[in-house]
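User: Hey, my collaborator sent me this sequence without any context and asked if I could get a structure. I don't really work with proteins. Can you help?
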Amino acid sequence: MDMGMISYIHDPKLRDVYIEIMREVLLSMDRNGQKDWDKYFLGIAEAASKKSRDPSTKVGAVIVRPNKSICSTGFNGFPRKMRDDPELYADRETKYKRIIHGEMNALIFAGEDITGYTLYTWPFPPCDRCALHMAQAGIKRVVAPKPTEEQLSRWKTSFEDAQSYFDEAGVILYLVNGE
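Assistant: No problem. I've predicted the 3D structure and written it out in structure-token form, which is a compact way to encode the shape of the chain:
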């Protein structure tokens, strides 16, 4: 089992409890073929990410119902009916003001109560702001590739805050090794 995800848990007792719970969850997932489903839906999130016009960071997201059917997908980009020109993406300040994250687009387009659903994101876990929205919406599990060193150099604090929020809200964050 990849223990990289527990590095954000600083209390040793809590970390030990978390490890035991995750071992049981992972064993259960293996028995039910969940890892195959996770790989499948991460592939769909990766495909969604390719629709983004952001030249530097392409994010895709898939929200999946408990019966393994897709509720919605999303990718990062500017709002509908607004200009989506390359020069707007090139200006970082303008881009950050206008862009909607892939997770948020998937949530907006869900069109139904997503309590108990799973969120898959590509190419890394949700940021701290999206984590709060996903927890509030009722997402129970998030699956994402483990962040690379380059991604951690840019967003480590946000990823750590997101993990903390998920822990507090009872949302399972499952990080898988990238391919």
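In plain terms: Residues 1-5 have pLDDT under 50 and may be disordered. You can pass these tokens on to your collaborator as they are.
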